[in-house]
Design goal:
By secondary structure, this protein is mostly beta strands. The protein has one domain (27-174). The chain has helices at 3-20, 47-53; strands at 28-32, 57-58, 67-79, 98-108, 113-119, 122-123, 130-141, 149-160, 163-174. The strands form two sheets. Strands 2, 3, 4, 5 and 6 form a five-stranded mixed sheet that branches. Strand 4 (98-108) and strand 5 (113-119) form a beta hairpin. The longest helix has 18 residues, at 3-20. The relative contact order is 0.20.
């Protein structure tokens, strides 16, 4: 049995199991913010620096999806948690019952918005009063005979118990 034959045999045996659980091939990375080291382990002492250099826009590496950029805008959204200490003094009066949320927009080749992928109406308490958001990376997947799907990893920064904290939020949706 050659290596290619063994792989083909294993793939044939695995196919029904993969189909039963709807396990698909992995998507292709289309954009990445290299300044925030998404492929590396980052120490908590470096998180404040990453927050300062992180990006609010990513440009996919190719235009197969018809997207020129993925744009993140930070917005104020309702919150059940008092996050007023997360705002600077000029914003605190208008921030009672609010927290930083985000809006994620896909822009077409002409620079105009194509689709609103996500917009926070309310920020869940599990985000722990975010101080900012930025984009980390995106992946695209086109299932056979179905529209393309995009997964965007958003970085959420907040004040943790022992310093700055960074967590990731996955936002998914169809491109069109």
């Amino acid at each position: 049995l050659t290596l290619d034959q063994a792989r083909a045999q294993a793939a044939a045996q695995a196919a029904p199991i993969l189909a039963r659980y709807a396990i698909a091939p992995r998507g292709e990375r289309t954009a990445v913010d290299r300044f925030t080291f998404p492929d590396d382990m980052v120490g908590y002492q470096d998180i404040a620096r990453l927050e300062q250099v992180s990006q609010k826009s990513l440009s996919p590496s190719y235009d197969v999806l018809g997207i020129s950029s993925i744009q993140l805008d930070q917005i104020l959204a309702d919150s059940t948690t008092d996050c007023s200490s997360s705002f600077d003094e000029t914003q605190q009066g208008a921030a009672i019952g609010k927290a930083f949320g985000f809006r994620l927009t896909l822009q077409g080749q002409d620079g105009k918005p194509v689709k609103l992928l996500h917009e926070d109406k309310a920020v869940p308490g599990s985000r722990h009063c975010p101080t900012s958001y930025s984009l980390s990376e995106s992946y695209a997947f086109t299932p056979d005979g179905k529209p393309a799907v995009l997964a965007v990893l958003v970085q959420r920064f907040s004040q943790g118990f022992e310093g700055r904290d960074r967590r990731f939020i996955a936002v998914t949706g169809q491109v069109r």
